[in-house]
Write a structure and sequence with these properties.
Layout: E1 2-6, H1 11-21, H2 24-27, H3 31-36, E2 40-48, E3 54-61, H4 72-88, E4 93-96, H5 99-106, E5 114-115, E6 118-119, E7 125-126, H6 129-143, E8 155-159, H7 164-176, E9 180-184, H8 188-198, E10 202-203, H9 206-209, E11 215-218, E12 237-241, H10 249-252, E13 257-261, E14 264-267, E15 287-289, H11 290-300, H12 316-329, E16 331-333
Parallel strand pairs: 1-3, 1-4, 4-7, 8-9, 8-11, 9-10, 11-12, 12-13
Antiparallel strand pairs: 2-3, 5-6, 14-15, 14-16
Helix pairs in contact: 4-5, 6-7, 6-11, 6-12, 11-12
The protein binds NADPH dihydro-nicotinamide-adenine-dinucleotide phosphate.
NADPH dihydro-nicotinamide-adenine-dinucleotide phosphate (NDP) binds near residues 105 and 163.
């Protein structure tokens, strides 16, 4: 059995969801009430692979909302309690979605093995980052040529390059072969270490990297205040918005600049669930975050262990393995073809 731990995108949206599910006391509750509310298992799901294999899963709402991010103790408790519930439900492998994996890593919750009387078994959880990184790489590979960008001669900026997903994307793109990797993050030291491990890549500030990049992979949570000078961007430019929340459309999309929601996959058939309706997916019955799909894939494959765990541990072999499973079981990376009026174009040399 697989599990998915998620949350609503705002208190307002959480209240609306509670009302639609018949939880009236939650629908009327204020932030303090939501802070003290326990996690809820809101949905059970049956998923059938393209191979014909069926598995069962459960969606657990952590009852966390982003308005709680500054309430550190609350945020921490929400994630740990949701994990405790997943374990009590005896779910074999559960993905931490949205802010829950960020909170887990940033607050170093690995130190918090015990919740109430329950000893958390880390092997039952995955961040889903290996599949997310693989999907983002596929999105680069498949969509750059549609815009006439030849990857072999393209500069690819990775914003969040020193992070778990970003460093894996850099390693994969290096193996694939791109003209140059532009490495962007706030702290220089982890970038220098990444550059040394890669043996290549140029470290740049965001402002300097963007005008040089044919492709930009965003794998960092961006502050709402971030401004992008769209006039300075290259045309064509492919932007993969892999961060959470996905807020690049409004900041960067423009003439010749194509923003694609990163780390999103589409299943081969409708699933018949409610949970993705609130995640603003174009096709909520079959589209989902790649990290959630990783839990399904691990269950399909009988890999009941923390496949993605900790930071900067993602190997190319693990990416290849989860990628093969992803294709076999019927997942497809979200592509630009869903944008109206986009014709395939011949690849141009760009560097
Ligand atoms: P990490 O914390 O491991 O890495 C974050 C990276 O972003 C670091 O390199 C960090 O470096 C950099 N960073 C953070 N803030 C900024 C900023 N303002 N400007 C530039 N760089 C910044 O996170 P993960 O790799 O685990 O996740 C990356 C993103 O992907 C997250 O937003 C996460 O929510 C999202 N994600 C999306 C999924 C999906 O859509 N399917 C699934 C899983 C994760 P530094 O601190 O030095 O700046």
């Amino acid at each position: 059995m697989f599990g998915l731990i998620g949350h609503s995108t705002s208190l307002e949206e959480a209240r609306a969801k509670a009302r639609s599910l018949g939880y009236e006391e939650y629908a009327d509750g204020d932030l303090d009430m939501w802070c003290s509310a326990p996690p809820q298992m809101v949905e059970t799901i049956a998923v059938t692979s393209r191979t014909g294999q069926s598995i069962q899963g459960a969606y657990i709402d952590s009852v966390f909302v982003p308005e709680m991010l500054r309430r550190f103790k609350t945020a921490k408790r929400k994630v740990l309690k949701a994990m405790e519930l997943a374990q009590k439900l005896n779910i074999d492998i559960t993905a931490l979605g949205g802010f829950t994996s960020i909170i887990f890593e940033d607050m170093n919750l690995l130190r918090e093995e015990r919740v109430s009387a329950v000893q958390l078994d880390w092997k039952r959880f995955t961040t889903g980052n290996t599949h997310t990184a693989w999907v983002i790489c596929q999105q680069v590979l498949q969509n750059a040529p549609k815009l006439g960008i030849d990857l072999a001669s393209a500069r690819v900026a990775v914003v969040g390059a020193s992070g778990d997903i970003g460093s894996a994307v850099c390693r994969w793109l290096q193996r694939q072969g791109v003209a140059e990797l532009l490495l962007v993050a706030r702290r220089p030291q982890p970038l220098i270490e990444l550059q040394q491990r890669l043996g290549e890549g140029r470290i740049l500030s965001l402002e300097k990297a963007l005008p040089e990049a044919d492709v930009v992979v965003w794998v960092a949570s961006l502050p709402q205040s971030l401004q992008i000078d769209t006039a300075s961007l290259r045309s064509p430019c492919l932007m993969i918005d892999g961060g959470y929340p996905k807020n690049l459309d409004s900041k960067a999309a423009g003439e010749g600049v194509h923003v694609l929601k990163g780390g999103i996959v589409e299943f081969w058939q409708d699933i018949g669930w409610q949970m993705m309706e609130v995640a603003e997916m174009a096709k909520p019955q079959r589209q989902m975050f790649a990290c959630f799909a990783e839990a399904m894939l691990l269950d399909f494959e009988g890999i009941h262990t923390n496949f993605s765990w900790g930071r900067n541990n993602i190997s190319l072999e693990a990416m290849d393995r989860i990628g093969e499973a992803s294709i076999r079981h019927g997942f497809q990376s979200l592509g630009l073809e869903s944008l109206p009026g986009l014709e395939a174009q011949p690849a141009l040399a760009t560097a």
